[in-house]
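TEACHING EXERCISE
Course module: macromolecular assemblies
Task: Read the component lines below, then compare them to the predicted structure of the full complex.
Student: A.B.
Group: 4
Components provided:
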Amino acid sequence: MRRAVSTAYYAVFHLLVEDFVGSWPFADQRARLARMFDHKKMRDAAFTPKDEKNPTPIETALIDVRTAFRQLQEDRHRADYDLSWNIVATDVTNAITLAEDTFSKWCSIRTEDVARHHLLSMFGAKPLRL
Amino acid sequence: MYVPSAVTKQTEIDAAVNRVQQIVGPDVVRIRYEIAEDWSGQWAIFFRVVLTDDAAGRRLRDIATKVVWELARQLDFPGMGVFPYHNFRSESEQAALREPAWA
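Instructor-supplied answer key:
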């Protein structure tokens, strides 16, 4: 069960990283570029909708992706290192469905400006106010 | 040492949790929470949500989304200096484990 929770996080992690490095023109450098992604920087990448009280559907999807990434990362950390965590089947189902949901939301917005800029922020760039 | 304002707002959090339970309905048995640091040392609020076996087994994603969304609607987490995490388990899972933090 711990492995499944960990894998759910890494599925989303690799989805985002591969999306970024896939645009790098030099195929032989993509693996090295992917290894430059830092879990904490990815998690902490800031994003604020233009109108905080009334985000667009695209911004809402991006907020959901960001929130799910952080939840999955925390669960992954506990799964891999916290032996006191009494993990249950519901934790696994929740992590897998959350990852699936995140795949679907990211794929629906990945070509949008806000999503592309957020991916660059996850790589370490300062956030851009669009 | 920095302590998030959420620590001093537990009455407000309790009231919001009660409202969320009423809004989401009987699928949610109870919601407990703890304010603590996450793996990286950032302050967080960890919600522990016990669901009925039926809800956990058949409608987990829907109920989980509703609980997460309602808690975010009721509570200003950034303003309280915490990030919310949510974990779910069924009544029968908790009955087997009997963890006080979830009781």
